[in-house]
Amino acid sequence: MTQLDIKFVRAQFPAFSEPSLQGQAFFENAGGSYTCQQVIDRLTRFYHQRKVQPYSAYEASRLGGEEMDEARTRLALMLGVDTDEVSFGPSTTQNTYVLAQAFRQWLKPGDAIVVTNQDHEANSGPWRRLADEGIEVREWTIDPETGHLDPGDLVDLLDESVRLVCFPHCSNVVGEINDVVAVTAIAHAAGAFVCVDGVSYAPHGLPNVGKLGADIYLFSAYKTYGPHQGIMVMRRELGMMLPNQGHYFNEASLYKRFTPAGPDHAQVAASAGMADYADALYSHHFSEAADETKRAEAVHDLMRAHEVKHLQPVLDYLSQKNSVRLVGPTQADSRAPTVAVELSGQAEPVAAELAPHGIMAGGGDFYAVRALEAMGIDPAKGVLRLSFVHYTSENEVSKLISVLDEVL
Ligand SMILES: Cc1ncc(COP(=O)(O)O)c(C=O)c1O
Q: How far lies 118's CA from each of 32, 352, 365, in Å?
């Protein structure tokens, strides 16, 4: 199998040649990734040449609108869905907030929804608040030892009242990749829609949402090498059925129905740079012609293989260390390289101790307060989180392990 050319990858990210960042290995990627050159170039061009109201006839405006459309078209192809099923909002948290308002209007007292205690609060709190309207909220809970979410337990929570199941593709502290295809099939068989938080999964290769089968799939572009935007896939059947949250005269435009604010034109346009980046990776590594969907799948697999290879030594090291508790699976192929560990004391000061050793990492609850509590970890104490992506090198991973060995 083709191996990721890490030199080529890192050359696409200005952060790796930025003098002020030299000697520092970045292990807080789950918080937000470095931005690729392709996105920065498009953002710069937009602000220099197209910073006018888009979609008018004059050239700067026409080109600005075309670039915004290009971003949705190309990302939709990568995600395996239709162009108007992709929309941009300020963040995933704001996107779920708007979605919850739509469900608030659509659901009736006596209807039920399922949420998990594995999620980041963004895909949990807005849904739980529907209880104020008489909606029954059922909790699909994790194993307190492992953090695992068992699809078998979901089956027991479903009946004909359940309209929606919300769960993460991958938790930002447990790291385990949930089987979206299987969970979606279970929910659909019971007549419920699914809303999947893909924020922690998408940085490791955009998934084919069409194949996953989810009705709603959310992720954040600032963690997938792009600008600070939330990206939402809303499949047509559900999107046209839920009450429109945008201006009434735009209700026929699926991509405008759940993003009531005016879009950030420059950042939407710059998001096409994520597709440019994926294409650059594809053409550097593969010679066969393939459509955008196939190219995205190949790039996903390339990234994943690199990450899995370098994640296993980190997991092996942490799982044999008695003074820490590794959260989530010990096998790299079942998880993302987002690795949380419980320490004997508070995590944040230890993260700070790593900084002078050239390791950028974070400590805290990462807004996964419910997941930490469910695993018996005091959120005030928090976890040390070490997260990396495909652009992380073998040297950086070795450095992480040796610094951890010194500090922990
Ligand atoms: C798993 C997960 N879901 C949702 C969010 C919220 O995303 P945003 O910052 O775009 O609101 C985050 C942010 O850290 C996250 O890690």
A: 20, 26, 12
State the pTM of this model. Answer: 0.98
Mean residue pLDDT across the chain: 98
Q: Please tell me if the CB atom of residue 224 comes closer than 6 angstroms to any atom of ligand 1.
A: no
What's the DSSP call for residue 361? -
Using the 8-state DSSP alphabet, how is residue 124 labeled?
T
* Cα 93 to ligand 1 centroid, rounded to whole Å: 7
Q: What is the pLDDT of residues 318-362, one digit of tens each?
A: 999 999 999 999 999 999 999 999 999 999 999 999 999 999 999
- Cα of 287 vs centre of ligand 1, distance in Å, is 35
- The CA distance from 51 to 380, in Å, is 44
Cα separation, 379 vs 149, whole angstroms: 20
**What is the CA(61)–ligand 1 centre distance, in A?**
32
Report the separation in Å between the CA atom of 227 and the middle of ligand 1, taken as the mean of its atom positions: 14
Measure the CA–CA gap between 74 and 79, rounded to whole angstroms.
9
Burial readout 23-36 (b: 16 or more C-beta within 10 A, e: otherwise)? eebbbbbbbebbbb
Q: Is 92 in the pocket of ligand 1 (CB under 6 A)?
A: yes
Say if residue 197 is exposed, middle or buried (CB neighbours under 10 Å; 0-12, 13-18, 19+).
Answer: buried
Q: Is 365 in the pocket of ligand 1 (CB under 6 A)?
A: no
Nearest Cα residue to atom 14 of ligand 1: 31
Question: Which residues pair with residue 177 across a beta bridge?
Answer: 170
Q: Any residues with CB less than 8 A from the CB of 256 and at least 6 apart, and which?
A: 87, 246, 247, 250
Predicted pLDDT of residue 45: 98
Token duo for residue 91: 């963040």
Percent of the chain with pLDDT over 70: 100
| Residue 151 near residue 118, CB atoms below 8 Å | no
